[in-house]
Amino acid sequence: MEKAISLIDFIKDEFVPEPKQIPERIKKEITLDLEDIFCPFCGHPLEYHYLSNARPLITIKYDISLRVVHKRCVNEECVACASKRNFYNPSLDLYMLPKKTYAMDVILLIGHLIQQEHYTEEEVVKYLLEEHGIIISQPSVNNYKRIALALGEALIMGNEEKIKKGLDGLPVRVYSIDGLSSNRSRTLFVIRDLISGIVLGSALLDKHDADTIHDFMEAVF
Ligand SMILES: [Zn+2]
Ligand SMILES: [Zn+2]
To answer: How far apart are CA 134 and CA 124, in angstroms?
Structure first.
């Protein structure tokens, strides 16, 4: 039981909204390593090459200053060595798009808010600030919205046989396709040129069925 001399303490003035407490960002300095692995072309152990300059990566929870370990194959008879192919942790391309500061989780959240929740771009700016402490401009939201839409594009048609044929028919280059669960039931696929390591395309697919992958690959090649 609590004694009160007035009810005033229990009354809230609803006309004055309480300012939202903006969540604090967690700052991290991260060096993304590549565990000692062997060259996929010749089996020679990869050697440390360099550590990239720090670049910002904003995820839903963290403000990351990210440096990435790059390795190389030093076997002179190997194509990866001859082409000076850099190797780095594959999760980089799965969660960070080239030249983009906001990570895949933020991009997917923007896409979700706009597509599923029908937020305006302005509302997304406000939401990201108030819920996650993320500062983002409206033009950036627009830009990331387009990326999210492109990633989430639902695709139909195709079959596994066609994918295999398509891969066999590729001249000279070797491609790798990585799929990794990154958001709910969706899978992010990244296709890269194995020799140069350049990412040729990435897509967020609802189902990692053969048809969808095939259509994605047709869009890339
Ligand atoms: Zn090699
Ligand atoms: Zn070097």
So the answer is: 10
